[in-house]
């Protein structure tokens, strides 16, 4: 991730290399925060799935018949 306002560090120099380029530090930090927050949500989802798989399937009870 590059945040640069100087011409020597222009997007032309970095974008071809696959780097994200932002005109201000605020925009760069905001984008980084969004990326990390999304990554955390993904990690939480994977952890829940792993926990459910470890617990095994839920028991199936036969339906109760009316008396």
Give a structural overview.
This protein is mainly alpha-helical. It has two helices and two strands. A two-stranded parallel sheet has the order 1-2. Helix 1 (11-14) links the parallel strand 1 and strand 2. It is rod-shaped and about 80 Å long.
List the helices and strands and how they pair.
Layout lengths: L1 E2 L7 H4 L6 E2 L2 H31 L12
Parallel strand pairs: 1-2
Whole-number radius of gyration?
24 Å
Question: Taking all residues together, what is the mean pLDDT?
Answer: 82
Determine the number of helices (DSSP H or I, runs of at least 4 residues): 2
What proportion strand? 5-15%
Which of globular, elongated, flat, extended, rod-shaped describes the shape? rod-shaped
Based on helices, strands and strand pairing, what is the structural class? Answer: mainly alpha
Helical residue percent? 40-55%
Low-confidence stretches: none
Biggest β-sheet: count, sense, barrel?
2 strands, parallel
Oligomer: single chain
Strand order of the largest sheet: 1-2
Series of H and E elements = EHEH
First-residue to last-residue Cα separation? 68 Å
Please give the number of β-strands: 2
């Amino acid at each position: 991730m590059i945040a640069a306002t100087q011409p020597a560090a222009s997007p032309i120099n970095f974008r071809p290399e696959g780097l994200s380029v932002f005109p201000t530090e605020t925009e760069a930090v905001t984008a980084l925060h969004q990326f990390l927050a999304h990554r955390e949500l993904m990690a939480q989802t994977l952890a829940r799935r792993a926990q459910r798989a470890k617990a095994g399937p839920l028991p199936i009870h036969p339906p109760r018949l009316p008396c």
